[in-house]
Specification:
Layout lengths: L3 H15 L2 E6 L5 E3 L2 E2 L6 H7 L7 E6 L4 E6 L4 H7 L5 H8 L3 E4 L3 H9 L4 E3 L6 H15 L11 E3 L1 H10 L3 H24 L6 H14 L4 E2 L4 E4 L20 E6 L1 E3 L2 E2 L2 E6 L6 H19 L8 H17 L7 H7 L25 E2 L2 E2 L7 E4 L2 E4 L12 E4 L2 E5 L4 E3 L8 H9 L3
Parallel strand pairs: 1-7, 5-6, 7-8
Antiparallel strand pairs: 1-4, 2-3, 4-5, 9-12, 10-11, 11-14, 12-13, 15-16, 17-20, 18-19, 20-21
Helix pairs in contact: 1-7, 5-6, 8-9, 8-13, 10-11, 11-12
One manganese (II) ion (MN) binds next to loops.
Length: 435
């Protein structure tokens, strides 16, 4: 659990980095699915990172400089709406419960913003993320500018608040890592459950249901992204999410699924045989991907470059592709020509955190950035073999990815998702366990 004081400290740190000016950070809107039905509500990650406040229709205004302060705008109490939609804090209770200096009804935002921006040097805002918010911000600025003849100074600069926040979010603290560890454990249990329930004749959606069942029964609020449950050749479609196919004897099943727990994502992929035993050809490709993943995880340590795990994985994958007859030539030659991209067309990972593809630059000053303790990334090499005349037929429709979540530590790294089986032996044993 993230303590109230942690959110206060984050606001304090952000204000320090701003030095002066006012940041405006709205949460996400509720989104209509169709007619009276809404998508399940998910707060904005930046807003939640700074507040812990999960209601829609809320905005954080953070004032930096000599008289700093944090102000929440949120929905008012409303006895009738609360009968229909449930509890809402209202400004007063939210201020006390979440440690803001002030809180006001969201309906007063447009009226109060020009006053809050008067005589401030900068507005920190994410211009361009949402045109309706952009128009409101321009309205506040113009309202301040209209007062210049009365001696008011309008902000001269609009700065992207996310540049500062991305760097803060990239380095996770102990409580964030603990939440991510738990999200990873729950997701690993879901993959184990999927392994127990997979068998020929079942449908991909039945296995998806087992994943969701485990996520929710363990207290995770939602999947962190649309689960991919892809049997046979469907595994060669990287973003396959229809999950409607039937599982066939002799096929592999690729599952890419992770839960979101208290705002933090897990992201795991496992690939296992529908009938419980890898065929010789499947095992050949699987062992290559597994070795590539081990090499990549071995390259995760503080001081290593972001690109090191990818390079380590590629070397092993390309050697494997040559050994299996998928590519010809030398490792360096295939790396140089990019022939491997026919079978491996994505990178080996991404930052992971509140968002599954989390924030944070991958390069700094033109160089891949160095890994630091507190960063969390995925390591997810794969090999996807579509039928083609020049590809050995025994490998057709084999699509394999193995993905773990790895936290960089002071000493090296911690694989948060280690409880999800991945050696051939461990997977086959997990599949044999009673459903
Ligand atoms: N599940 C999304 C990804 O692996 O990047
Ligand atoms: Mn991923
Ligand atoms: Mn994934």
């Amino acid at each position: 659990m993230i303590e109230l004081s942690t959110y206060q400290q984050r606001r304090h740190r952000l204000a320090e980095q701003m030095q002066a000016g006012v940041a405006v950070i709205p949460t996400a809107p509720e989104r209509s699915r169709n007619r009276d039905s809404q998508y399940p509500y998910r707060f904005d990650s930046y807003f939640h990172y700074l507040t812990g406040f999960a209601e829609p229709d809320a905005v954080l205004v953070l004032v930096a400089g000599e008289t700093p302060g944090s102000i929440l705008f949120c929905r008012e109490k409303n006895a009738e709406r609360e009968v229909w939609d449930g509890f809402r804090y209202g400004p007063e209770a939210a201020r006390d419960a979440f440690g803001f200096d002030e809180a006001h009804p969201i309906a007063r935002l447009d009226e109060m913003m020009p006053r809050l921006l008067a005589d401030q040097p900068s507005l920190f805002f994410h211009l361009g993320a949402d045109s309706a918010w952009d128009a409101r911000a321009v309205g506040w600025l113009n309202a301040v500018r209209a007062e210049v003849r009365n001696g008011v100074v309008a902000p001269a600069a609009i700065r992207d608040v996310r540049v500062l926040l991305d760097e803060m979010r990239l380095i996770k603290d102990v409580a964030e890592i603990a939440t991510m560890r738990r999200a990873a454990e729950i997701s690993a249990m879901a993959h184990r459950r999927a392994m127990r329930h997979a068998r020929p004749g079942r449908h991909e959606y039945e296995i998806e249901a087992e994943l969701l069942h485990e996520f929710r029964r363990q207290g995770a609020q939602a999947p962190a992204y649309s689960s991919i449950v892809a049997g046979g050749g469907n595994a060669c479609v990287l973003h396959y999410v229809s999950n409607g196919g039937m599982l066939r004897d002799g096929d592999l099943l690729l599952i890419d699924a992770g839960c979101e727990l208290d705002g933090y994502a897990a992201d795991i992929t496992r690939t296992f045989p529908v009938n419980g035993r890898y065929s010789a050809a499947q095992k050949d490709v699987y062992e290559v991907v597994l070795a590539a993943q081990a090499a990549a995880i071995g390259a995760v340590a503080p001081g290593a470059s972001w690109e090191d795990p990818h390079r380590a994985a590629l070397k092993v994958l390309v050697q494997g592709m040559i050994d299996l007859g998928l590519c010809t030539g030398s490792v360096d030659g295939v790396l140089e020509s990019g022939d491997y991209k026919r079978f491996y067309m994505h990178k080996t990972g991404h930052w992971l955190g509140m968002d599954v593809h989390d924030v944070g630059d991958y390069k700094r000053g033109g160089e891949w950035r160095k890994l630091e303790a507190g960063m969390v990334l995925t390591v997810e090499p794969g090999c996807y073999i579509r039928p083609a005349g020049d590809v050995p037929e025994q490998f057709w429709n084999i699509g394999i990815r193995i993905e773990d979540d790895v936290a960089v530590t002071e000493q090296g790294c911690e694989v948060l998702t280690a409880a999800a089986p991945k050696t051939v032996r461990d997977v086959e044993a997990a599949m044999g366990a009673a459903a």
